[in-house]
């Protein structure tokens, strides 16, 4: 793992593997999730497919800068400020997190990249693809949404279950146990994971970094951000949308709507997949993303040849 300071002054922890002259793929992770949540099989599978692949900790996650100056925001105040003439506390938004990715690309001297975003990372990738078109070669949006987060009946039930298990005191054991419960609740019904495997993953994450206040600030960033649906038609990069049909966090309808809003987007609904990366599906997912990126690269090459005098 390496760290680099980007233009804004934020320090980003990242991993950069593969031939530096190969097409670059940037993996953008979701809410409160560290770069190690990207499965090794997927990450190195893309590297072995001939790509330069970067995964990183978003601001307020893992080993990247923890923005404690923003404190512990009130989601209620942020929600009300979007609906009433109130002033909320100064917070960052998903647009700021999108700027982090652009500045990371600049710091690593990457002019153009293929973006792969999961959950909140998909939201960030959508913003970049719409607002920084010339820097995005393709987009893959996984278990994400282009609209405001809405709690369905099943979503509300999940939220209440997670609140019940949320640690009352920030100690290692309670954090590990919560992480296990979280992944059991949002996981894929068709691909259940052994509790010992989930425990090992939880220990790895908690021991690497643990900052629940950072999670709260990222959640506040989602709440404070505008709906992206008006941006979707502006996305010109070839787009692949991957979504599980039993996702308890982002309903499958959100994935379908995202694909419908982006011109010529391809939609892949995965039966039995929830809001996680089931190990049994990683070989397939690597193949889907690799094929999508290679197809975008082929079109790019053909366009270059066509425009060449």
TrEMBL record:
Residue ranges of domain AB hydrolase-1 in the record: 23-276
GO molecular function terms noted in the UniProt entry: triacylglycerol lipase activity
One Pfam family of this chain: Abhydrolase_1
Keywords, alphabetical: Hydrolase, Membrane, Transmembrane, Transmembrane helix
Chain ranges passing through the membrane: 21-38
Family matches, as InterPro entries: AB_hydrolase, AB_hydrolase_1, AB_hydrolase_fold
GO biological processes: glycerolipid catabolic process
Gene3D superfamilies according to UniProt: alpha/beta hydrolase
Protein name: Hydrolase
Species for this entry: Pseudoalteromonas porphyrae
């Amino acid at each position: 793992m390496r760290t680099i300071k980007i233009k804004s002054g934020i320090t980003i922890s990242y991993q950069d593997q593969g031939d530096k002259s190969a097409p670059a793929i940037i993996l953008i992770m979701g809410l409160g999730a560290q770069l190690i949540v990207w499965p090794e099989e997927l990450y190195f599978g893309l590297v072995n497919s001939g790509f330069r692949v970067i995964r990183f900790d978003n601001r307020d996650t893992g080993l990247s800068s923890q923005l404690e100056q923003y404190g512990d925001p009130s989601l209620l105040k942020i929600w009300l400020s979007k609906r009433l003439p109130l002033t909320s506390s100064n917070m960052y938004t998903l647009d700021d997190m999108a700027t982090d990715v652009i500045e990371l690309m600049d710091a690593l001297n990457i002019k153009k990249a293929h973006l792969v975003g999961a959950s909140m990372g998909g939201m960030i990738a959508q913003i970049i693809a719409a607002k920084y078109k010339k820097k995005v070669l393709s987009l893959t949006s996984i278990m994400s949404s282009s609209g405001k987060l809405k709690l369905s009946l099943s979503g509300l039930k999940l939220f209440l279950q997670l609140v019940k298990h949320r640690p009352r005191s920030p100690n290692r054991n309670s954090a590990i146990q919560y992480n296990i419960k979280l992944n059991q609740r949002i996981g894929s019904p068709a691909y259940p994971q052994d509790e010992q495997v989930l425990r090992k993953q939880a220990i790895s994450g908690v021991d690497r970094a643990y900052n629940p206040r950072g999670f709260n600030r990222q959640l506040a960033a989602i709440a404070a951000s505008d709906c992206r649906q008006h941006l979707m038609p502006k996305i010109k990069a070839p787009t692949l949308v991957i979504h599980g049909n039993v996702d308890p966090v982002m309903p499958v309808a959100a994935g379908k709507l995202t694909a419908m809003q982006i011109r010529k987007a391809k939609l892949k609904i995965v039966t039995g997949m929830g809001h996680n990366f089931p190990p049994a599906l990683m070989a397939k997912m690597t193949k889907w993303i690799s094929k999508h990126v290679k197809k975008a690269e082929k079109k790019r090459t053909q366009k270059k040849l066509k425009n060449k005098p």
